[in-house]
Amino acid sequence: MTIKVGDKLPAATLRTIVDGAVTEVTTEDLFKGKTVALFAVPAAYTRTCSTKHLPGYVVNADALKAKGVDTIVCMAVNDAFVMDAWGRDRNVGATVMMLGDGNADLTRALGLDKDSTANGMGIRSQRFSMVVEDGILKSLDIDPPGQFGATSAEAMLDRL
Amino acid sequence: MTINVGDKIPSATLKTMGADGPEEVTTEDLFKGKTVALFAVPGAFTPTCSAKHLPGYVTNAEAIKAKGVDTIVCLSVNDAFVMGAWGKDQNAGGKVEMLADGNADLTRQLGLDMDASGHGMGVRSKRYSMIVEDGAVKVLNQEPPGAFEISSAEAMMKQL
Questions:
Q1: Mutate to test the interface with A, among B24, B41, B78 (most CBs of A within 10 A)
Q2: Domain A13-159 class in CATH
């Protein structure tokens, strides 16, 4: 079952790197009292993700925050080390928080996982974006496999 | 059951990053008629792996090959995109083949997998090294969790 607009985000623990150390980030801490623009990609370092999806949110970070977004999150079923290295490679800096859902715990709880075993990538996330206000899902956009459009930063700007 | 010295390496398909994207590498192609020095790490871009393990094999690649090794392989339960990016980051090109076991197919068959869910990393590989001659395991060095010593490039040089 995929999460629906109006639902509360399920509880899960994600991970990020802070000052070189792996740090846990609970969904409660992440979403409580905040407006969060979250986008998820099938994998770090892949072409669409690296050339369009993540860069779009980096470039438009100020514009998104000007529209009331407190935190921009990039999530993938990769570990925190990979997400951090990828963020540095793409010069994300403080614009976008790079969160690893390495066990796919949150992705599965959202019903937005997909089986990429045939591509040698195990269980991954679908490409999606969401706006979450104080832990409640306000909008959800999912790109069909192999496509990129509805989940872009530009599309999210139009929504906010 | 962990693989033993003398056993044949099981069949599995790994992936590597080619010029136009991920390419398949079967264990048959990888090991047939060759002497292969393979080391496996729990995760790309992690501190020990990036600071010591992979760099040791990159630095000693020529010396290892001078001792009769045809191919040096770095294996991890990460996808080909991550392994490719990590290899580039660590200047492994032409020295160490960065192979991805993204579904942990080979790692599980070798009995060298570990559950890293507690660290938000799902199923991963233990840290080990092996020398494989024409598909048969000649030497296996398995590190205890958290240790890095017997699977180093320097240790392998003494076993060749």
A1: B78
A2: alpha beta
